[in-house]
Amino acid sequence: MEQVASRESGAGEAVAVEFRDATKRYPGATDDAVRGLTLEVPAGEICVLVGPSGCGKTTAMRMVNRMVEITDGDILVGDRTVRERGPAELRREIGYVIQQIGLFPHRTIADNIATVPRLLGWERERIDARVDELLGVVGLEREIAERFPAQLSGGQQQRVGVARALAANPGVMLMDEPFGAVDPINRERLQNEFLRLQAELRKTILFVTHDIDEAIKMGDRIAILRQGGRLAQYATPAELLMAPGDDFVEDFVGADRALKRLALMRVSDIDLWEAPLAFPGQATSEVRAKLDGAEVPHPLVIDAERRPLGWMSDSDLAQATVPAQPDTRPDPVVELDDVMRDALSDLLQAETRYSPVVDPQGRLAGVLSVEIISEFLTSDEALVEEHPAPERPLAEAEEAG
Amino acid sequence: MKLAFLDAFTGALDFIFNQREAQTGGVEVGGLGQVADLTLDHVEVSAIALTGSLAIAMPIGVWLGHRGRGELLAVAIGNAGRAVPELALIAFMVAFVGVGLVNVSIALLVLGIPPILTNSFVAIRQVDRDAVEAARGMGMSEPEIVGKVELPLAVPTLMSGVRTAAIAIVATATIAPLAGVVTLGDLILSRNVYGDDGVLAGAILVAVLALVVELALAGVQRLLTPRGVLLQRAPAAV
Amino acid sequence: MNPGVAAHLPLAQGDDFFQERSDTGCVQENGFFCAQWAFENFDRYMSPLLEHIVLVSVSVFAGFAIAIGLAVLSHGRRWLVPPLLGLTGVLYTIPSLAFFILLLPITGFGRTTAIVALTAYTLQIIYRNVVAGLANVPAASKDAGRGMGMTDQQLLWRVELPLAVPELVAGLRIATVSTVAIATLAVFAGAGGLGDPLLKDITFRTNVIVAGGLAILLAIAFDALLVLAGRVASPWRKVRPV
After folding, report:
1. Of A359, B82, B129, C167, which is most buried by a Cβ count within 10 Å?
2. Are A266 and A336 in contact (CB under 8 A)?
3. What's the pLDDT tens digit per position in A186-196?
């Protein structure tokens, strides 16, 4: 992913977005679409609006850029109320990404991306440079700049949609199920790339989705909405998973919320056990001595660089010296950086109780077991150190840097 | 804008209602009797041609549309028909075939067939394929499908083609006198006999006739369109 | 019966076009197509042809401008569409010859009358097609455009109308071909055109073929030109997914 080199002036700074008792009532409707929504999104964070179909989450998002007009209450973007700003002018400072993308079929990709800069009257060179930069940022080749939307795949179109929203470097972005129209594999890739992008750009983002897993993955804060646009709970993902406010939230989050928490953590986040260590050629009597009172009742053989070679079985222990190749292989070997949920899955799949954990260089850091994980989850101090969304572990298809 | 044109129109109206002496002298022209005669002639000529066009073009168009074949042909004929200048057509008839009702009718057929053919084809093609599939699945025979499913659903576009043909025929019947068939157009073309008032009267009558025909056919369309189809928006004509 | 059936004069005045014909046998016998006569006298058709081209071009262009204006007017005011369709429909229904004659007392003899009538005739098809084209603009593109900060006017001129171009061109093609055909009657309004030589000697076969043929060729030429213009104006249409 390329560095966003240029620093665009003015609108670039991320600002906070605040809903103050915002309400939307459609004439003739029996209920409000959104009722009394109050929440604050700190600058530079991602707030996910999530809820069942028709709960008003998209309406609430569209109230921020006045695509839907507020009936009561107020919305502030960076301390300025949106009600007193001209709609078109306001929208040019807010990035807008919708599910069906809505690229202009009659314009090239470059022209599409350049839409808002053109509306703002940028000079030609500045626009061209920015388009070029953005194509790199969203991971598209420069050659597609002169193509038309009909020639791009769904995933590519989605990226262009994001690039287009970023073009004028807005401080706030509104995204309505932006990855919804893509297949699950591409969706995951797009989510990961977007989080990496956000790590650099740090924009204030309002993100709408109906998928609670996407919300937990993408959100620094999550706002769960009920029917009629009423706020059920506004919390960080960890809080939401550990302390759902009521039955509705609990149902919506899902019965597997404990497992969902594991997706938020890395192996390095918890305290590991220690196993008695053995070196090849060492006298087994020494090893046997260490076994008393050890957390892990099996010795682990490691080499000179502390790399795990395997577990010693009883027959291994009966020998005079520690073998270089123990009876039991060390697999599955887990890495410190691994997502906790994936580590648990590996353990369960291999049907082993213990797994050596290594650092990025392959050196032993500790031992992981299913019990450690379940102990951790049920302990009172399990308020995990919340990572901001862009720094959460991402399930990778290929290893990134 | 000079108000003189008001005089012209008054004169034309007078021509319609009152007889007067011909410019060439001798005979009486104008008046409701002659107007009625000419109008009837015009309607007769047009009706013959329209009926003929319908009889020839609609079955072909419907059948082609039902089978889904010959799209290129149907569309090409429609386009070609639009390009034929009516005056040239009548002239062609006069120069190559001669004068008389038969020849004029052929010319009118040439103008009336394309819009009906094309629109019939398109109208049937546009019918919801799912409805046709369902009908076939329920055991309807092909002719039954055409008659009970496709045609009723195709009425708006079909009738729009008929209206286009009717207007083209009524319009060309106006210059039929050039080929020896007397219609309301005679008033326009024989200024030396009917005078300026007659010419204008002829134009007024032809225009009114065309509008009446259009309204009548629109009424027929309304009657023939099934209630369910009326509730949808009618597709644009070709 | 009615007097004045056979012999009649067209309203247009003009020089004696065909009094001079070369005395070849073909012409005497009024053969199917006398190539030599046609070749020698071709220049006599040039002026009517030019008049014809001017009539069609001006009328279609005027019709295009007015129809777009009407479409912009009725954009966002859907209640205007049926009455406008009705109004342009009436203009379309009135047979062109009658229309020319009806205009004569108002606009007099000559090109203006013809152009007014021809323009009126094109309005319905162009208007209807532009409206249909505007209705087919993808809703997502409109939402995105508005959400990015385009005003309604900007949206209309930068997104909606350009995307309606294919339908517009289709309507222009139909209108143009029809106008070429109808303009042969412009001679009755005193505006010349290819109807002029046609009417001068309606029994002379070669004349009919040349004049009529030129009209048809002209229609084909205009149509091809518009197809080309349409392709240039909508480059995004011919691309296929890569």
Report:
1. B82
2. yes
3. 888 888 888 88
